[in-house]
Design a protein that fits this description.
The longest helix has 19 residues, at 379-397. Helix 5 links the parallel strand 3 (137-139) and strand 4 (155-161). Strands 1, 2, 3, 4, 5 and 6 form a six-stranded parallel β-sheet that branches. This protein has a three-stranded parallel β-sheet with strand order 7-8-9. It has helices at 42-54, 74-79, 87-91, 117-131, 143-151, 173-179, 209-221, 232-241, 265-273, 297-311, 327-333, 340-344, 361-374, 379-397, 408-414, and strands at 58-62, 97-100, 137-139, 155-161, 182-186, 224-226, 247-251, 277-280, 316-318. By secondary structure, it is of the alpha/beta class.
Length: 415
């Protein structure tokens, strides 16, 4: 993997713990659970190293914070609104860019329900302040930022939100969030909002008229749209309303595991037909399959292969949705807020304490690449699914200051 320009920075080290903020003992960034690495031959090891060095590696959905060691403190930890990014673990992840989804619905600084405007801005501003005090992670606002991060041995941070609930009925709040650096937003989380319906709702009425306006505004601003947690009709309406390709940043195939958290074939196909991409999800107890009801790396990759066969390799990527800490424990703490029961599906499954081989950001992409190598995927196809497909969509969706507002002849001169 490309060695990143990491110099030992720890989150908020410019402040004094216990004086400037309440200190919590945090989990280990690596080694919390037994490590697992897919073994390769010497030649395969060299190939894996080259693939990481020569290609952009992008996670379409993750949470790069470090959870507190004592999960009984988690709600208090959240109320302080000061997530600590796992810089050391991130530096070893092989990633060149990560779509980081912050606290999102668990930003409960002023509210027990989450998704409040003030809380989202507090959370976002706090993370960006920390990033501004170090130099390994850079803010990813354009595709050029991502490419330059790779070139300079840094990692681009793309601020993302899993739902648009916090904009309420204020369309201009999308502009404000864009100004704060947000470049990817979901329509709804599990619960419905003013834009549309989430996967938890029994009656999905699709995008509201306000939701259609919001989709059009996101297109104009250059915010990538995500439908991972949206209900089926809301998802399809979003795909059809958007003038640009959209993302399913973190999900899998419902055909393999009957859960509302995963997407039916026709939505995955509709997304791909408009040029979009689905990122395969790895959070505990999501991408299981009928063949493998125990969640592991192979069941996760079974979802990848199913989607690749369904819509083609050009429309699949990875959004592992992992973090540093006890992920299963956090799900138990936030079972109600995160609608965990709605995500698990109707079949019985074997609960795991962690997902072996893809438990945290440090081991996720190294094992994804190693798995693809052992299954005989070509360099070209691996390059597409670990970053190339995402960049193709971003080049079309994100605002490009070099070409915006110029004619075709002028555009040639700016390239």
């Amino acid at each position: 993997m490309q060695k990143k320009d990491y110099r030992g920075y720890r989150a908020y080290q410019y402040l004094e713990p216990g004086v400037d903020f309440k200190e919590f003992k945090l989990s280990k960034e690596t080694g919390l659970f037994p490590p697992y690495t897919i073994p390769l031959t010497e030649a395969q090891e060299e190939r894996a190293k080259r693939l990481f060095e020569e290609n952009l590696v992008i996670s379409l959905h993750d949470h790069m914070f470090v959870a507190p060691e004592n999960l009984n403190e988690f709600f208090e930890f959240r109320r302080w609104g000061r997530d600590s990014m796992g810089y050391e673990g991130l530096s070893q992840s092989g990633l060149d860019c990560v779509f980081d989804n912050l606290m999102n619905g668990t930003a409960m600084i002023t509210s027990r329900a989450g998704w409040k405007w003030d809380d989202i801005l507090f959370d976002l501003g706090m993370r960006l302040c920390d990033i501004a005090h170090q130099d390994m992670v850079v803010l990813g606002l354009t595709t050029d930022d991502i490419r330059q991060a790779k070139k300079n041995k840094k990692i681009a941070f793309v601020a993302s939100l899993e739902a648009s609930t916090m904009i309420e009925n204020e369309l201009d709040r999308l502009d404000i969030l864009y100004g704060f650096g947000v470049r990817c937003m979901g329509i709804a989380y599990s619960e419905g909002n003013s834009l549309g319906y989430g996967l938890k709702e029994k009656n999905d009425g699709g995008l509201t008229e306000f939701g259609r306006q919001a989709v059009r505004r996101m297109n104009k601003l250059g915010i990538a749209i995500d439908i991972s947690h949206s209900g089926d009709k809301t998802s399809l309406d979003t795909i059809e309303t958007s003038e640009k390709p959209i993302f399913i940043t973190h999900a899998g195939a419902r055909s393999l595991w009957d859960s509302n958290r995963l997407k039916p074939d026709y939505i995955i196909q509709a997304c791909a037909e408009r040029g979009g991409v689905i990122g395969i999800e790895a959070a505990p107890h999501t991408t299981m399959t009928k063949n493998q009801p125990k969640h592991n790396l192979d069941s996760f990759m079974e979802h990848f292969e199913y989607c690749a066969n369904l819509v083609g390799i050009d429309h699949v990527a990875f959004g592992p949705d992992v973090l540093f800490g006890d992920h299963v424990g956090i799900h138990r703490v936030f079972a109600s807020a995160l609608s965990i029961s709605a995500a698990h599906g109707k079949k019985d499954f074997e609960e795991v304490d962690y997902v072996e081989g893809i438990e945290n950001p440090t081991e996720a992409f190294p094992n994804i690449v190693r798995w693809l190598i052992t299954r005989g995927y070509s360099d070209e196809d691996i390059a597409k699914v670990i970053g190339g497909n995402i960049m193709r969509v971003l080049d079309e969706v994100w605002y490009n200051p070099k070409t915006m507002g110029v004619g075709k002849e002028d555009e040639k001169a700016t390239v």
